[in-house]
């Protein structure tokens, strides 16, 4: 099975887990997923698009929608970090 | 005035414009802002955090929250592009 096929159920699981319990454990899972996304060259906009479609499908309330940004934040931190690493590597090479 | 101080009102203006009219023009403004964010080393997670806080403050409805992801998508496309450019530069240098 391709990573992209596994991504949607995995991300869905992390979001729904977080929206139920709002514990750090789910956010940590988001962090771990983030590393894999970058390894598999999944772009950050693909995650926004996936996040939107999961929230539409789940008919999330206003409150849940707001809370769901915490998961997105965690995932985007991975991209931010990767991006800063690339930048500093580039600066070193110049 | 610092870019960071201008960022919040600018991003807020783009979101509220898009939520009112949902036209391409506002999305294009999001694209342009995206380039500036990257130039000023604003991390993608800072944008998620700002987006959340704007949506909380505006007491957006479920529908508006869902629509607002389109603006976030547009902005993140800029990060995705910058990230892919860095990656290909790195591959060339290896």
From TrEMBL, chains A, B:
It comes from the Bacteria. Signal peptide: none annotated. This is Protein serine/threonine phosphatase. It comes from Lederbergia lenta (Bacillus lentus). The chain holds residues 1 to 94 of 335 of the full protein.
